[in-house]
Structure formats: structure tokens, C-alpha cells
Amino acid sequence: MLILGIETSCDETGVALFDDQQGLLAHALYSQIDIHADYGGVVPELASRDHVRKLLPLCDQVLAQAGKSRRDIEGIAYTAGPGLVGALMVGGSVAHALGFALDIPVLGVHHMEGHLLAPMLEDNPPGFPFVALLVSGGHTQLVRVDGIGEYQMLGESVDDAAGEAFDKTAKMLGLDYPGGPRVAALAEKGREGRYRFPRPMTDRPGLDFSFSGLKTFTLNTVSAAQEQGRFDEQTRADIALAFESAVVDTLTIKCRRALEQSGCERLVIAGGVSANKRLRTALEAMAVKQKAKVFYARPEFCTDNGAMIAYAGAQRLKAGQFDGERILSVPRWPMDTLPPVSEPRANGLVD
């Protein structure tokens, strides 16, 4: 079954072709970073307009790369949420229009399920069950995964997501958008031990996260350095390292607890922050001690992309799940409300 995957949840337009027999045939991604950089973050209206401009040309580009035509497509998957409602509507509208014209099934896919399943595109995919750490600009969650659509929420952020804290810290340090990779790059120049930041909610049991207090601690540290006239490049790097280390340690501690409590021996990390090198190193070291194994997608599939949507959509479309005539656009969508892939269901995944 040849599936066209469309991702337009935020500021990246992703398209891919996935065949359930041959695997990923082609994919393309257009990033709007340059458009939003002047504003220090994503402007929803500009994001929607640029998706309109780029989506169909990217579809044609991917089809050409794979040597396929639109008539070869047997199903379409698009991101239905969570995300920016206008951006989601662009992808949903194009998907449904193409599906209607080609008389093929169309399915709205959960964005975070796409991230969670992205490691399945690799040569050595994880088996079920596993614990997944979903960590991005909008989400920080720990989920037990017993199968596609069989999700148990173990813990999540009670306020800011880790990726959001990275972006806010970048602004405090005078770094450009997107903040996460820039904080990580600056931290490489930092000196260990000059600052010690708290590891929030690790001094108590449980698997929930909180990064709002860490963000405030960073702001107070930056303000103090500025007042003392010591906010030079080295100080900024030292603060970046202290912040990154605090986030990485917090995530690692919670992942260790999740593995112990669940009894799982496999850990999947997914989402934009999963590309962070310090986080990957720390989780791999922890997993060795826990006699567990860590899985993650290649860096290009950690951020938003069409390949993960095509793969996730293919699994559900093969099971007989598809949208009705309604375009799904769900800005907020708890992942543990998704039905198992083993339950064929028409008219979409949202009541």
C-alpha cells in the first residue's frame, strides 16, 4: 500500500511516500525558520500561508523522486493535531481534496504518535512493549507503549515542555530562533561546575515533569550576571551548559524510573529534543546500567517530518481506519485516547 504522508502542524512542511512492502521511498522537508527568525518564534498566520505555498510543490517533488504519479497513491495520511489550527487545516484540506479526486482513503494522524513511531523507520526498530520519552517544543511525556494505539501515560509536564524551556532560555541568552540547537551549541563551550541548576521534581516520587521553575532560575541567573557586569560570552556558555545539564539529568532520572516501574527493557526517545547529543549520551549510559536498550530516529526524523506521518498513517489505513468527509483539525489531542490499530474504525479517530 503506497501512502502519501503530509505534515503541517507548525512551521515545517513535510511530505513523504511510504510503501508497506518497500519502506520509505522518498521524503522532502521545507523549514520556515528563516521566515519566523525575525519574530523570535512561530507566527501562526505566516506559517499557514507558507504551507499553502509549499505543500503541493513538495508533493510533486516527492512523487518525482520516487518515480510515481498521483494515480499510484493508495492512501493519504496527514497531521490532524496537535498543532496550530490554521496550519493543520492546510494539510487536512489538501489531503482530503487529493483523496476525493483520486477516490482513495484519507486519515488524520496524531502528530505525537508519528514522532513515537519514527524509530520504526530505522533498520533496527524497537519491539513492543517499550517506554517512550516524547520530548519537543510542545510536549514532554513518558508513555508505556504495548502496541500502536495501546498507550498508557506514565508522566508528563505539568507546565512548560522541555523544548519550550530551551527556546525561552535561548532568548534570555540572546540567541536566535530556533533556540534548542543554539543553546546546545553554546553549551559546548561552557565550563562544568560554575553554575548548578536544580533538577525539578526529581526529589520526589513520580514521573511528571516541570520546567517552569528551571526557566525562572535561569532568568534569575542571567539577571544577576548582567547586574554584576559579568554577562560575557563565557558566562553565557556556562549558563547554557548548566541549563542543558539540568534538563538532561531530569529527563534521564525520570526515564530510569519509568523503565524500573514498567519493567520494560526498551526505551524510545522521540521529538525534536531527542536529537540533543548530551541527552542521547546520558540516556545510553543510563540504559547500560539498567540492562536496557535505547532507540531513536535519525536526526532528520527527530524534528517534524512527513515520513513519520506516512508510516503512522500506513499502519492505521491498512487496519481499515480512515476519515469520513470531515477534515480533522484537533489543536489539543490526548494521545491515550487513540484506538488500537487492531480496531478498524471509519469516520476518523476523533468523536
Could you explain the architecture of this structure?
The chain has 2 domains: 2-117 and 302-337, Nucleotidyltransferase, domain 5; 129-296, Nucleotidyltransferase, domain 5. Helices cover 41% and strands 19% of the residues. It has helices at 33-37, 44-66, 85-102, 111-117, 162-172, 179-187, 212-227, 233-262, 277-289, 306-318, and strands spanning 2-7, 12-19, 23-31, 75-81, 106-110, 130-135, 140-147, 150-156, 266-270, 293-296. α5 (162-172) packs across α6, α5 (162-172) packs antiparallel against α8 and α7 (212-227) runs antiparallel to α8. The longest helix has 30 residues, at 233-262. Its main location: cytoplasm. One of its GO terms (biological process) is tRNA threonylcarbamoyladenosine modification.
Radius of gyration over all CA atoms, rounded? 20 Å
Per the CATH scheme, the topology name of the largest domain is Nucleotidyltransferase, domain 5
Summed up, the domain count is 2
Query: How confident is the prediction overall: mean pLDDT?
Result: 95
CATH architecture of the largest domain: 2-Layer Sandwich
Q: What's the CATH superfamily of the largest domain, by name?
A: ATPase, nucleotide binding domain
How many helices does DSSP assign? 10
Percent of residues in helices comes to 40-55%
Shape: globular
Strand order of the largest sheet: 3-2-1-4-5
Percent strand? 15-25%
Name of the level-1 CATH class of the largest domain: Alpha Beta
Measured distance between first and last alpha carbons: 26 Å
